[in-house]
């Protein structure tokens, strides 16, 4: 995790200190939008006390300005317009401020980073895992940048050596031509008179001998230069390959893993800016070394000298080609994946990106990208073409034969992206391919929850380098807990995740166990079949279907109450009874229904009307999303006046009143708007409403049919109890009638009472 991400989570005085670091000398917006780039630079490598380091500081300033200008160019739309102006202004401001004193910029940024790291370390405690991660990340970035600096110096060194070799070889060729001229002169002596030949021959012979000795010695020297240069290139390529392996097999793979976990609600995978800058540096260094190797080969062909250099250059050329090929094919990535649950007849989009495209000038002739959705088992494809961004809708799908108990929502597809482009005037032609994360294709919304289960299991438990899309059939329970917690927090949009008690409840449900000890479940495994193929005992739904129902209910209607801590939720009926029986009458709690998907019920403690002096816990028939679309949970709790305290002892109005619907205004044009209220007959009694003068039904006592049958005729006499033996209300028919009445009340009055209007 970057320093900046952690710095943004500071609070109180620490946050104030962090904010005070910024101003006109260095705007906080620059820190925000260039956070990864800033933290990746070797600011500590600049000696602020050495004036000779000013050139290095100037390069860093220029790079900072360039990065800001890149950000400016990428801003689009209305929101990006103002940001483009602001960032452009900051680029000019920083250049004007530090152009003449670039070392001051380095001093400023070093101070900012040091202070932020100190504040984060103090806030998270230096001994915590987070602090260690920060140090490890900074160290890794420093190591990568140091390796790039070493590669740059090595490449510069071999370039200098190559120039020297070229100059020496050119001089050697000139001298060799001179030796040929001397040999020609000796050959012409035979045409001269003997006296002249005797006079000139010794000098020419001596000159030829001297020249041949020099040529022999210089040829050996050139051969040594060539060998030394080849060995330096070997060292450079070894370091290049190591650096590339670190970036592609470590950093890029980790980014892809974070990208996959983000599909389950994990933190964002992070921007690609730093990764792209590393890949572009690699591409630049590889191209420079490749050009040097080709120039060395050209010099060898120009002046062949027997020896091992020819074989070495061939090996170097093959190695550098392999390196650049691996870089190009590995950096063709999917920046934005297609939806992993894909409904037919629905449009979708994806974005692919070549991280080295800028350095290879791919933008000069943008390649076409083809996207094909395939079934990995049969390699059956639908022909679906795309540009870099837009994809058309998936109109139909051909499925493979399913095996055993496998359902259509367990079948995985993938989108295969393919492209081809050339480098260096068609000298190197690359064919690149990449696969999307697994996609489950559905034809109806009712398949969504099971398809989501397939995707969640794959995203959570996929291993790097797997055969697509192989996953373990069983996983450890703590691993599954991490995945469920990540999904729950993301969907409910809450920092309040699943507690250890919540996870124990889920384990009890998943394994049909009564143990309340978390340790009993740590070594247990859960299979895919247990997760979403086999129904829970005594139910017609799976573990995942129940959990997904909770998520849907929470994110649509109850997430504010969950964030307030008002919903315990993961409590079974017996636990609720044990908790409530020690509390005063009217204490209630909210728990998720065991018997209904996406249901939540109210349990409360009150007197048993059939046995004086005895108390019991009552459970209201579960509410579902349909109920809350008619009347909210807070309003329903407000209606039930026998509910007094939210467990353990919080007055209910203190918790829920901020969510109550305000009272309706007075009559308009002579019409009174009807109100919907929830009533539990066994706990309802009439009380005057001082605002209206009309009786309403409060629920501090037993059913009015029992307490005051002679006063109120709205409820007919009830001969049979509405409670079952477990204290559950059997309100299914009653609730159906109530919902029908509520729907009638929501219709325009003139439609219900036409002909009776006054």
Automatic annotation (TrEMBL):
<dbReference type="InterPro" id="IPR012345">
    <property type="entry name" value="STAT_TF_DNA-bd_N"/>
</dbReference>
<dbReference type="GO" id="GO:0005634">
    <property type="term" value="C:nucleus"/>
</dbReference>
<dbReference type="InterPro" id="IPR013800">
    <property type="entry name" value="STAT_TF_alpha"/>
</dbReference>
<keyword id="KW-0238">DNA-binding</keyword>
<keyword id="KW-0597">Phosphoprotein</keyword>
<keyword id="KW-0727">SH2 domain</keyword>
<dbReference type="InterPro" id="IPR048988">
    <property type="entry name" value="STAT_linker"/>
</dbReference>
<keyword id="KW-0963">Cytoplasm</keyword>
<dbReference type="Pfam" id="PF00017">
    <property type="entry name" value="SH2"/>
</dbReference>
<keyword id="KW-0804">Transcription</keyword>
<dbReference type="InterPro" id="IPR013799">
    <property type="entry name" value="STAT_TF_prot_interaction"/>
</dbReference>
<dbReference type="InterPro" id="IPR046994">
    <property type="entry name" value="STAT5_CC"/>
</dbReference>
<dbReference type="InterPro" id="IPR015988">
    <property type="entry name" value="STAT_TF_CC"/>
</dbReference>
<keyword id="KW-0539">Nucleus</keyword>
<dbReference type="GO" id="GO:0005829">
    <property type="term" value="C:cytosol"/>
</dbReference>
<keyword id="KW-0805">Transcription regulation</keyword>
<dbReference type="InterPro" id="IPR036860">
    <property type="entry name" value="SH2_dom_sf"/>
</dbReference>
<dbReference type="Pfam" id="PF02864">
    <property type="entry name" value="STAT_bind"/>
</dbReference>
<dbReference type="GO" id="GO:0003677">
    <property type="term" value="F:DNA binding"/>
</dbReference>
<comment type="similarity">
    <text>Belongs to the transcription factor STAT family.</text>
</comment>
<dbReference type="Pfam" id="PF02865">
    <property type="entry name" value="STAT_int"/>
</dbReference>
<dbReference type="Pfam" id="PF01017">
    <property type="entry name" value="STAT_alpha"/>
</dbReference>
<dbReference type="GO" id="GO:0003700">
    <property type="term" value="F:DNA-binding transcription factor activity"/>
</dbReference>
<dbReference type="InterPro" id="IPR013801">
    <property type="entry name" value="STAT_TF_DNA-bd"/>
</dbReference>
<dbReference type="InterPro" id="IPR001217">
    <property type="entry name" value="STAT"/>
</dbReference>
<dbReference type="Pfam" id="PF21354">
    <property type="entry name" value="STAT_linker"/>
</dbReference>
<dbReference type="InterPro" id="IPR036535">
    <property type="entry name" value="STAT_N_sf"/>
</dbReference>
<feature type="domain" description="SH2">
    <location>
        <begin position="562"/>
        <end position="663"/>
    </location>
</feature>
<protein>
    <recommendedName>
        <fullName>Signal transducer and activator of transcription</fullName>
    </recommendedName>
</protein>
<dbReference type="GO" id="GO:0007166">
    <property type="term" value="P:cell surface receptor signaling pathway"/>
</dbReference>
<dbReference type="InterPro" id="IPR000980">
    <property type="entry name" value="SH2"/>
</dbReference>
<dbReference type="InterPro" id="IPR008967">
    <property type="entry name" value="p53-like_TF_DNA-bd_sf"/>
</dbReference>
<keyword id="KW-0010">Activator</keyword>
């Amino acid at each position: 995790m970057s320093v900046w991400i952690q710095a943004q989570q500071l609070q109180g005085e620490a946050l104030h200190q962090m904010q005070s670091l910024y101003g006109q000398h260095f705007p906080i917006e620059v820190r925000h939008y260039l956070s990864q780039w800033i933290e990746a630079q070797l600011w500590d490598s600049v000696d602020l006390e050495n004036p000779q380091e000013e050139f290095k500081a100037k390069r860093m300033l220029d790079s900072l300005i360039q990065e800001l200008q890149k950000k400016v160019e990428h801003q689009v739309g209305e929101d990006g317009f103002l940001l483009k102006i602001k960032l452009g202004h900051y680029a000019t401001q920083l250049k004007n401020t530090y152009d003449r004193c670039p070392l001051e910029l380095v001093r400023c940024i070093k101070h900012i980073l040091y202070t932020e790291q100190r504040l984060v370390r103090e806030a998270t405690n230096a001994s915590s895992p987070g602090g260690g991660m920060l140090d490890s990340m900074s160290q890794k970035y420093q190591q990568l940048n140091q390796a790039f600096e070493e590669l740059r110096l090595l490449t510069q060194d071999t370039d200098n050596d190559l120039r020297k070799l070229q100059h020496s070889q050119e001089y050697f060729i000139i001298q060799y031509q001179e030796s040929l001229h001397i040999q020609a002169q000796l050959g012409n002596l035979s045409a001269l008179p003997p006296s002249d030949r005797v006079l000139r021959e010794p000098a020419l012979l001596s000159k030829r001998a001297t020249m041949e000795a020099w040529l022999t010695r210089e040829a050996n020297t050139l051969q040594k230069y060539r060998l030394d240069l080849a060995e330096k290139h070997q060292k450079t390529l070894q370091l290049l390959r190591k650096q590339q392996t670190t970036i592609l097999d470590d950093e890029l793979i980790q980014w892809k893993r974070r990208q996959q976990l983000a599909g389950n609600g994990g933190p964002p995978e992070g921007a690609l800016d730093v990764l792209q800058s590393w890949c572009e540096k690699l591409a630049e260094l590889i191209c420079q070394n490749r050009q040097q190797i080709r120039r060395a080969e050209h010099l060898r062909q120009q002046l062949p000298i027997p020896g091992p250099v020819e074989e070495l250059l061939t090996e170097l050329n093959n190695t550098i080609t392999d390196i650049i090929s691996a870089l190009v094919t590995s950096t063709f990535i999917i920046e934005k994946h297609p939806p992993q649950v894909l409904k037919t007849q629905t449009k979708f989009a994806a974005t692919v990106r070549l991280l080295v495209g800028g350095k290879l000038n791919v933008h000069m002739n943008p390649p076409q990208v083809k996207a094909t959705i395939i079934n990995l088992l049969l390699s059956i494809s639908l022909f679906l073409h795309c540009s870099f961004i837009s994809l058309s809708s998936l109109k139909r799908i051909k499925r493979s034969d399913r095996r055993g108990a496998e359902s259509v929502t367990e079948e995985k597809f993938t989108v295969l992206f393919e492209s081809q482009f050339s480098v260096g005037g068609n000298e190197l032609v690359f064919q690149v391919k990449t696969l999307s994360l697994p996609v489950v294709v559905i034809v109806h919304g009712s398949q969504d929850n099971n398809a989501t289960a397939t995707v969640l299991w794959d995203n959570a438990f996929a291993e790097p380098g797997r055969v697509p899309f192989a996953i373990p059939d069983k996983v450890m329970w703590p691993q599954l807990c991490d995945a469920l917690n990540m999904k729950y927090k993301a969907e409910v949009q809450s920092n309040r995740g699943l507690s250890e008690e919540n996870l124990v409840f889920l384990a009890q449900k998943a394994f049909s166990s009564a143990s309340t000890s978390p340790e009993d479940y740590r070594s247990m495994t859960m299979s895919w079949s247990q997760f979403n193929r086999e129904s829970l005992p005594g139910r017609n739904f799976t573990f995942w279907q129940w959990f997904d129902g909770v998520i849907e209910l929470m994110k649509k209607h109850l997430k504010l109450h969950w964030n307030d801590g008002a919903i315990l939720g993961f409590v079974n009926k017996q636990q609720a009874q044990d908790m409530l029986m020690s509390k005063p009458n009217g204490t209630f709690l909210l728990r998720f229904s065991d018997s209904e998907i996406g249901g939540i019920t109210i349990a409360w403690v009150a007197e048993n009307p059939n046995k004086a002096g005895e108390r019991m816990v009552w459970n209201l028939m579960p509410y579902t999303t349909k109920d809350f679309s008619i009347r909210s949970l807070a309003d329903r709790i407000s209606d039930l006046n026998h509910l007094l305290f939210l467990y353990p002892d919080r007055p209910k109005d203190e918790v829920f009143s901020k969510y109550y619907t305000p009272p309706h205004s007075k009559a308009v044009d002579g019409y009174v708007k009807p109100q919907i209220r929830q009533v539990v007959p066994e706990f309802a009694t009439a009380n005057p409403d001082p605002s209206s003068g009309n009786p309403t039904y409060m629920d501090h006592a037993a059913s009015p049919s029992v307490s005051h049958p002679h006063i109120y005729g709205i409820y007919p006499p009830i001969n049979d109890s509405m409670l079952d033996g477990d204290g559950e209300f059997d309100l299914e028919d009653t609730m159906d009638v109530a919902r029908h009445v509520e729907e009638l009340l929501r219709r325009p009055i003139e439609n219900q009472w036409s002909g009776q209007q006054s």
